[in-house]
Structure formats: structure tokens, C-alpha cells
Amino acid sequence: MQVDLSGVTVRFGTLTAVDNVSLHFSPGEIHAVVGENGAGKSTVMNVLFGLIKPAVGTIAIDGAEMQWRNPQDAIARGLGMVHQHFMLQDSMSVLENIVLCSEPVSNLGFVKFNTARARLREIAETYGIGVNPEKRIADLSVTERQIVEILKVLYRDAALLILDEPTAVLTPQEAASLFQILRNFRASGKSIALITHKLDEVMEIADRVSVMRAGKLISTKPIGETSKAEIARGIIGGELPASLTRATQAVGEVVLAVDGLQARGVGKTVGPVSFDVRRGEIVGIAGISGNGQTQIIEALVGLRATTGGQASLLGHTLRGLDVGARRALGMSYIPADRQRVGLALEAKVSENAAIGREGTKAFRNWLFIKRAAMTSFARELIESYHIKVAGPNARTSSMSGGNKQKLIVGRELSRGTPLIIAENPTWGVDIGAIDFIHRELIRMRDAGHAILLVSTELDEVLALSDRILVLYENQIAGEFAAADADRLAIGELMTSRSKVVQVA
User: Fold this and answer.
1) How far apart are CA 477 and CA 479, in angstroms?
2) Using CA of residue 395, residue 397, residue 399, residue 405, what is the dihedral sign?
3) Which among 263, 264, 294 is positioned nearest to 141, based on CA atoms?
4) Where does the record place the ABC transporter domain (predicted)?
5) If pLDDT is split at 50, 70 and 90, which confidence band does 168 have?
6) Where does the chain hold its CATH 3.40.50.300 domain(s)?
7) Do 174 and 143 meet the contact criterion of CB atoms below 8 Å apart?
């Protein structure tokens, strides 16, 4: 199936989000679309999928012009989309999620789950995908949820699969498994539109790449006729940033002390884990998702009850303190899930920027919130962190994923607390923003702040960390000093506890 977008323009009020963009998706091809946050990538894909109506432009399938009233029309013509933030019902099973709104029904009106189960088994075997159809979504890892989203699309016979940042929170091993699924999909003659910020992945798996900047299409080339550096220059509109450097420095007192901490995980206890983070250092945690990182961080910030051990911040125990009290004690937190934990999506940008400060004198006068102060502060964050948004009074839900992430990072780092806990701080942001956020974390570290970094990007952990802890099966399998960090050794510990390493 040949799918063509021609001369598409999208406007939101006075803002032109997409300006005269044409993209073409051919059978048996992976076509990557890259660009900065707010460049218009997701907006174009939302037009293609019927979520947004363009002011100008056409969609054609095999040369016939289409008019979408809604995504159901696009789905009926063979398009499927996996969004950056999963659209799954946590309380339902895998099978129930996959067949939702496409259930096979008997003459008496009952859902024929055995028929659906058989069809799902056939699809899984065809594309080499494995997932238990009876498991609840709430009990699945991030990778398994991604697979369920893809199975939903395949169940509906999609010929064009649109993927928005599919590996944003996957480890390299998990991404490799996903890529094999995509290769099988391509080999069957189907098409893939891949939105991503990861240029290494573009070079590895894409057949063609289109670069967007400021709502315009800059270039479209076969992958063999371009390079990673050329794509990067097209994205940022200039030369690449200088390489990141991290100077060695003496560390100070212990800021975060964790001693035998345990927390309840999915079906088992996470921990016990013991470690500390000192002033002037970044301690990174590496590990394949599902090995306890999320539970440990949630226990530290107060989102999950502990079942043993203890943690202290600057000598003050965290036991019994809620999230607000821990933040008041000197903790900032960049969460992995910006949609559900990091932001109030229907609130204004200014209101989200002030979270954690709304009770301070700067933002409150007795019973009254100082709206002007909140607006002024949000404007400072927008400028400092290059956040693309209509303004402080815009709804946060109107922002792209990467710009939401920059808002959270700016809000948390600007608090200047002794401890910063950062989970996947560059999730879904473009190469320019990644460099900026990394430099901000290094700047905070150099200024004497203690930073606990959790990232599914091993390169990020290696680039930023002074010490690296490796998690495997809910426990610390090893520790590396930055100077001794070895990618292969870390990778081995991430997948096997056959050897435990402790490097001072």
C-alpha cells in the first residue's frame, strides 16, 4: 500500500505547526521522520492517522484521495498508530486490550474470545512476537506494553504502522527485540513510519529518512545517501554541539544514604539495596527495565511503601515522610512518567512550573496565589530551557512530549535542592535538548549537588556518571567507578549475576 501526504499545513490559531509538508510511505519500507521537539513530526503523523484535520493538504492511498473523519476511518483503510504514551487499560488483560472496539461477536452478542485468542496466536507466530494474552496490563514491563500496542495494530490488519518514539524508554536489548519485529513487518511488504530522536537507530533500521525543522520538511533521502552527522545538522540547523566533558572533582558529604532498602515489586520484593550519593557526584543506575529501578526510586521519593531497610537525606530519615515532606527536606525528582506523575496536563504551563513552590512567599500572599509571579517564572523557564509552547498560559497538554520533558527538568533543576533524582531525564527530547540537559546536570554536579541518575540509555549513564551501580533481578549486582566503567562488563551484569563486581 502506497500512502502519500501532499502539501499538508496545520495551524493552531495563529501558530503554523506544519507548513506545506509532503511525505511518502512505500510498501516494504521503514521511513524515519526526525526533528527537534516541536518540529511538527507528531502533528504530521496525527494528520495521517485522522486525529488532526489539516488546513491545507491531501492524503492519498494508492493514488486515491482520502478524507478522514476520525481515526476509525484511517484504521479501516489499513493505518495503525502506536503513540509515544501508551493507550492501554491497566485493569484489563492483554487480550481484552487488543480486541477492544474490534471484538469478534457471536450471533447472541457474546465476545468470541477463543476466536480472538487464535487470531492473536497466529499474528504472534507470523511476526515472532511473544506475550501472555491473559496477563493484566498493570503487570507488564514497558517492553511488553509496547508489544501489546503493536499487536493491537496488527490485529486490525494495518498495512502502515506509525510508531512515535517506540524505543524512548527501552534498553538496547529491548530495542533490538523490537527492531526484529519491525524487520519482520517490513519483510511482509508492510510500511513503517518511525518518529524518533535516536539517530543511531535511524542509521541501523531505516530505509529512508526525512528531516523536519520548525514545521517544514528540510530533506528526504535514502539512508545510504546521508550520514548521522548530516542528519543531525539538518535537525538543529547548524553545527553539532561540542563533546560533553566532565572534570574530575573531590566529592563531599553523603547526601542520600540507603541502607538495606526493600520495596514491594511485581510478585517479589525489590532489594535489599544499599548505596550512597555524595555532594558533587552523579551516581548512575544501569539495568534492563523491570529489574527494580522503578520500585527503588518510587520508594525513595515517597510514591511506594518500603518493606524493610531505611534511607536518609542529609542525616534525616525519610521513613514516614510523604512526597511533599521529602521535597521540602531537599529532594527534587524528574519522574520517568511525565504524563501521569510529572505534570497536570490540563493545567496551565505556569501552574505546572510552580509545582512545589506554590506555598512559598514568592508565589503566595496569605491565601492568594500570585499569578503574575507564576507567569513570570514560567516565562523564565521557557526561555532558559528553549521550551516551544504558545506561552505560560497555554495548556500543558498542548505541548509535544519533548517540551513537556524540558518543562519538568527545568522546574526540578531550578529548585536547587541538595539531592536530584532523575529518571530518564532526556526521554523523547531532541539531540540539542539532550546536550543542554546533560550540561545542566553536570553544572549542578559541579556546584555540589548530589544526583542519582536512572536511565535506560546506557550511553547516558556512561557519559554522566562518576559511579555506576548495576541492577539485576532487583538487587545491585556490581559497582563501577567512572574510570573503570566498561560497556561489556556492565552489559554482562545487566543480564547475569554470574559475577559480582565492586570497584572502589
Assistant:
1) 7
2) positive
3) 294
4) 3-239, 255-498
5) low
6) 3-236, 254-344+399-502
7) yes
Residues 6+ apart with CB under 8 A from 328: none
Rounded to the nearest 10 degrees, what angle do helices 142-155 and 113-127 cross at? 110
CATH fold of the domain at 254-344+399-502:
Rossmann fold (3.40.50)
Q: Closest Cα to residue 2, out of 81, 59, 61?
A: 61
Q: How many CB atoms lie within 10 A of CB 253?
A: 13
Can you tell me the distance from the alpha carbon of 480 to that of 284, in angstroms, rounded to the nearest whole number? 10
Cell, residue 253: 558529604
First to last CA, the chain: 57
| Residue at 229: amino acid letter | A
Look at residues 161, 171, 159 and name the one whose alpha carbon lies nearest to residue 198. 171
CATH of domain 3-236: 3.40.50.300
DSSP structure string for 81-104: EE-SS----TTSBHHHHHHTTS--
Contact 38, 402 (CB under 8 A): yes
Return d(Cα 122, Cα 118) in angstroms, integer: 6
Q: What pTM, to 2 d.p., does this model score?
A: 0.69
User: Residue 198 is placed in which grid cell?
Assistant: 535516536
Contacts of 10 (CB under 8 A, 6+ apart): 16, 17, 18, 40, 43, 44, 47, 52, 54, 55
Alpha-carbon span 221 to 203, nearest angstrom: 12
Chain centroid to CA 80: 20
Cα–chain-centroid distance for residue 361? 34
Q: How far is CA 81 from CA 119, 151, 157, 284, 427, in A?
A: 20, 11, 12, 33, 20
Q: Are strands 281-286 and 450-454 parallel, antiparallel or unpaired?
A: parallel
Closest among 475, 463, 400, 398 to 437, alpha carbons compared? 463
Share of the chain above pLDDT 70, in %: 93
pLDDT tens-digit series, residues 13-60? 877 889 999 999 999 999 999 988 778 888 999 999 999 999 999 999
Tell me which of 316 and 86 has the higher pLDDT. 316
Banded pLDDT at 235 (limits 50, 70, 90): confident
List the 208-213 sheet strands across, edge first: 79-82, 160-164, 191-195, 29-35, 208-213, 216-222
Tracing cell 512518567 back to the chain, one arrives at 337
Going by the DSSP 8-state scheme, the letter that residue 378 receives in this structure is H
**Helices 228-236 + 431-446 axis angle, to 10:** 80
Count of C-beta atoms within a 10 Å radius of residue 83: 18
